[in-house]
Amino acid sequence: MAVADGVIYVGAQDAHVYAVDADTGAEVWRYRTDSNVVTTPAILDDLVYVASFDNNVYALDIDTGVLRWKYETGDSVWSSPAVADGTVFVGSNDDHLYALDALTGELRWKYETGESIPGSPTVVDGKVYFNSYDDHVYALDAASGELHWRFEIGQGALSKPLVAEGLVFIGSWDERLYALDQETGALRWNYWTGDSVLSSPAVQDGLVFFGSDDGLVYALESQTGDLRWSHQTGDQVRSSPTVAGGIVYVGSFDDHVYALDASTGTLLWRYETDGDLRASPLSVDGVLYIGSRDGYVYALSAGAGERSVVVPEATPTPDPASAFVPLTEAEIKPLLDFALSTDEITITEITDHTQLVLDIFRTGYYLLVGRTPEEDGWVPRIMTGDAYLQFIDDNHRGDPVLKRAVAFCCDRTSDGLDLIINGSWPVATVLASLPHEVGHARQKFMNPVQSGDPRDSDVGAIREGEAYAFEAALLRKLGEYARVNATQVPVDSTASRFFDSWRVLWLEQFDDLTLEHERGALLLWLAALNDSRLEGLRDELLSEYILSPASLLAIHNLFVELAPGEIGDYVAELRSHYRDDFNVIGGTLERRKGNVPLEGFVEHAPLIFVIP
User: Fold this and answer.
1) How many other β-carbons are positioned within 10 Å of the β-carbon of residue 535?
2) Longest pairwise C-alpha distance within the chain
3) Cβ atoms within 10 A of the Cβ of 69, count?
4) Which of 114, 358, 403, 450 shows the greatest Cβ crowding within 10 Å of its Cβ?
5) Is 181 exposed, middle or buried (0-12, 13-18, 19+ CB in 10 A)?
């Protein structure tokens, strides 16, 4: 956020730019873009500059919010504009840094890097400093765009470079804060934290302050990189610190804003909001302003105190309904850790992981519904790759769709419905596929008439939504039980691009009936946000950013109960809400990121990470 003449200017993930009275919080004006606004506005004279995921850079009248000009780049813009000497500098995910005339929006020059530019530029002494996902930090001549120097870091960066005391400070995904010589780009020092450094640093009185995904706020000697102090918060720190009056203010993903003594790191106070804090605090005239993921901007005095901390309860486990004894947490955790990290196939000529997969699956199913799969009539049959293909040839006329599948439902036998699984896929893939096919089995058993419609239809999309809801519910239940991450997604650049690709697909191809899997995933969101029968799910999504296993099971059951004749109207009703919910869904997905590697379910069953 930015402030000028008693007005705060802030962008929001509801696609709006807001002007808010700094004293009262009353809205002065708002301007709607066509997508999320996650950038910090810049101000010059009578204009406010802001960028949006809709690819555009906007110049708005500071008093009225009326559009004065906009400039379209080639991709979404996460970079906050910087204004200097009558020029607006901004990076785009189209790999270019743009220099635009501040009054007219006309292009003065652009500079192409080897990857997207999500971070914000800094302009100092006629040079513009920025980073790219091509793993380089750049210094360009601000007037001409000519390269002054560039320096390669271990991985790309999101943080904004800080230029101070003859150094350029910048954090990186490679877990380090770098200090580069301002004139030459030569490395002066780097400091290795315990996780990615996405917080933009601040400098005061010879100390550089920044946060890390390891949950710590650091203070280092700016010239040497020696540690002065660190303070542990309850979660990742991506908020950029603000230093004022000898106090460091910074937000954390634990929903708190912290006030720390700049010299010692001693906690002076903390204040709890209802959402994680990624934004940078802004200190003006003894008032601290900060935006939260709960959708509010807070104005705090230096005496703001601590609010009570509410810890949400885990989803309850059903009472036992059989003599089955599930694996204990201690037993299942190493099995699940192995399943999510190995690339070994489930069944080979040498190693057979069938029993491991079945033990994990049965435990997850039991924890979710209180029975075993076999008690409900679902019988997993994991075959070798060759046996699976032969089975399709012998029993399903060599169906090419089934041959490419990991699993399918179902073959009816005297024991119930057999779930046929191709065991030549990785363990994590098979683990995700089993509950997906159970979702289909439950539909076939409870509402078989739904099965009469073809795949490429609204009914087909609802069927896939049913399956994904049950799949995600079971995997999240396992994650809760074993304290293994089966829900969060990586924080690196691929996660954002993954989410962006889904948002684009959902926006442009919602009505493509051949995409029944993708449409099924989206219908789960729209139902959770808009179906009045799913009481409380919208509030749960907006506050927790993800649905509990019990809530997903509720959507699954509702979809299963739908008659084919009512599904067309039901999908059309959900469809009517999509434009309004598009930014809500995108913002919720972004909030869900965690710090996990690209492995396990993320690598082998990524679609469950776009399930609400």
Assistant:
1) 10
2) 80
3) 17
4) 450
5) middle
Dihedral pair phi/psi, residue 543, rounded to 5°: -95, -35
In terms of Cβ atoms closer than 10 Å to its own Cβ (0-12, 13-18, 19+), residue 536 is exposed
Interior CA angle at 518 toward 515 and 522, to 5°?
Answer: 130
Cβ neighbors of 310 (< 8 A, separation 6 or more) are: none
Q: Which two tokens stand for residue 323?
A: 């003599």
To which H or E segment does residue 505 belong? helix 493-509
CA 547 to chain centre: 14
| pLDDT tens per residue, range 113-134 | 989 998 889 999 999 999 998 8
The predicted pLDDT at position 483 comes to 78
- 275 phi, psi to nearest 5 deg: -160, 160
- Phi-psi category of 578—alpha, beta or left, where left has phi over 0 and alpha has psi -120 to 50? alpha
Place of tokens 């046929």: 420
pLDDT (tens digit per residue) in 251-273:
999 888 898 999 999 988 888 88
Both tokens assigned to 11: 């962008």
Q: Could you give the CA distance from residue 189 to residue 184 in angstroms, rounded to a whole number?
A: 14
Q: Which two tokens stand for residue 446?
A: 């409870």
Count other Cβ atoms within 10 Å, centred on residue 563: 11
Token code pair at residue 75: 């991709």
Length of the chain equals 612
Q: Which of 343, 590, 341, 612 is nearest to 490 (CA)?
A: 590
For 445-482, give the DSSP string.
HH-GGGGGS-SSSHHHHHHHHHHHHHHHHHHHHHHHHH
Higher pLDDT, 450 or 576: 576
User: Which residue type sits at 42?
Assistant: A
Pick from 147, 153, 69, 155: nearest CA to 106: 69
Cβ within 8 Å of residue 47, ≥6 positions away: 59, 60, 61, 62, 68, 102, 103
Tell me how far apart the alpha carbons of residues 280 and 240 are, in angstroms, rounded to a whole number: 5
Give 576-591 pLDDT, tens digit per residue.
988 888 888 877 877 7
User: Distances from the Cα of 355 to the Cαs of 278, 360, 368, in angstroms?
Assistant: 43, 9, 20
Q: What is the pLDDT of residues 8-49, one digit of tens each?
A: 888 887 888 888 888 888 889 889 888 888 778 899 989 999
Q: What is the number of other CB atoms lying within 10 angstroms of the CB of residue 135?
A: 19
Q: Dig out the tokens for 56 from the structure.
A: 């555009």
The phi-psi region of residue 215 (left if phi > 0; otherwise alpha if psi is between -120 and 50; otherwise beta) is: left
Alpha-carbon separation of residue 34 from 42, 56, 186, 468, 582 (angstroms): 19, 9, 41, 29, 10
169 close to 160: Cβ distance less than 8 angstroms:
no
Instruction: Output the six-digit token pair for 349.
Output: 């000529």
Supply the DSSP string of 352-416, one letter for each residue: B-HHHHHHHHHHHHHHHHSS-HHHHTEEEEEE-HHHHHHHHHHHSTT-HHHHH-SEEEEEEETTE
DSSP state of 364: H
Which of 468, 408, 504, 421 has its CA nearest to residue 609?
468
- The helix or strand, by DSSP H or E, that contains position 344, with its residue range, turns out to be none
Containing H/E element for 545?
Answer: none
Dist. CA 215–CA 252, nearest whole Å:
8
Q: Which two tokens stand for residue 395?
A: 């029993």
Which residue is associated with the tokens 């906009």?
Answer: 70
Helix (H) or strand (E) holding 320: none
